[in-house]
């Protein structure tokens, strides 16, 4: 009896501690016919559900409709969760654990129609600095530089679907833009802006970085000169890719002097859609998963 009571109390404590929604989710998601829940959180959940082998394909339309409820039930049933069609903490945690990763892998090719490629392989622990390569159209690595793709948050940063979390993996179009206005936070040199997601999580999160309904807008490859940059380690970002200013300067020089890239005017994401043809691509993949 005594042990049962202790077990009961322990389970109750565990249940109440874990009963909050994990980032990026901030609310429980469920079906209502009168005023359906709608938003980027629903879209993220739908995108994860579509990666489950238990879920039959349905449209990811940002609305928690009956098809989404059915998909949640299939996910829950296939994974031995209690089946209620509601995304509460347990279902959200399992969706993240099983389906956050996009499985994106760089194909080793240089995509036609662009002037440069940046290839970055990251550890799932984003606290560990990663190696990036600038690649020319003849598919040769012409510059190697260290980057950090860690966002804010504990334990290596929040996951890449969260506000200010790690840079999402995937393939993006990028473009060289004139410097940001604040050299302390963004460095004094032209920056590379992630303008559109083409594959992997990047395509879910940033179909076009200048659109207001993007989940992660305004991602850049940049440096900084503030005090946090002077501690000898590359500091975390809010989702941007960070490197040292000497490298960012070098990339700008190579792009403009050797590869024929133009510096396009920086509209800071305010012009919709992105007003130039993006000149490069960025490929960001996980090394260890
Ligand atoms: C991630 O890597 C950092 C730096 O190497 C290390 O200090 C930290 O313990 C690692 N975190 C996890 C969760 O493994
Ligand atoms: C590839 O292109 C780069 C940039 O134009 C050039 O510097 C390099 O020599 C080329 N490498 C080969 C193997 O052709």
Automatic annotation (TrEMBL):
The keyword Cell cycle does not apply. Residues 39-95 form the Peptidoglycan binding-like domain. Pfam families: PG_binding_1. InterPro entries: Peptidoglycan-bd-like, PGBD-like_sf, PGBDSf. It comes from the Eukaryota. Keywords: Signal. The keyword Signal applies. SUPFAM superfamilies: PGBD-like. Residues 1-19 form the signal peptide. This is Peptidoglycan binding-like domain-containing protein. It comes from Anaeramoeba flamelloides. The lineage of its organism: Eukaryota, Metamonada, Anaeramoebidae, Anaeramoeba.
